[in-house]
Structure formats: C-alpha cells, structure tokens
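Entry 14. Ran structure prediction on the chain below.
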Amino acid sequence: MAKTYDFRFIVRKAEKKMIGGVEYVTVMFGGTADVYHESCAEMTYAEAKHHLQNLSDGEPRTHRAVLSMKYRDDRVPPGFNKNKNWIDGGN
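Output, structure tokens:
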C-alpha cells in the first residue's frame, strides 16, 4: 500500500498580466475573500495531485491552486520539493 501524507489544498484569487509578451501571475494574500477554497486531507501524493487538478478545473475565476503539507514539520513524499505543486487556472 502506498504511503499517505497530510496535505493542504488552497485555491486563491490571482491576476494575470502580460508584460513584454510574458504572462505573470500575481497571487492575492489579503484575507478570506481572496481564498476560494481551503481544505486538508490524508492521501497519497498521486491522489493529492489529482485532487488539486480537480479543484483547479472546478474554479472558473482566475486563481492559483496550491498543494502543500498540512503542517510545516510534516514528512514530505519523495520528489515533493522538486515538483511544481501549484496550478494557475481560470480566465
């Protein structure tokens, strides 16, 4: 059986801007109105990445969906710190 870990899922408001032909994403950290979704769950890393994709796909507003560990001192799955654990989505 695969190891499970405590993950946190956060979908936050974001703005996309084009500067010099490059798209930049600004994530809002201003309060609860800027948080579209927040939850925690124990699951495998593969399940967590799939769940993050589902959360992002289900949010039509411009956002950044972030996968992190529930607590700072939680053990992390192999490869977690080397992978991109966020998704920019929405309009």
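Residues 45-57 form the longest helix (13 residues). Will compare against last week's run tomorrow.
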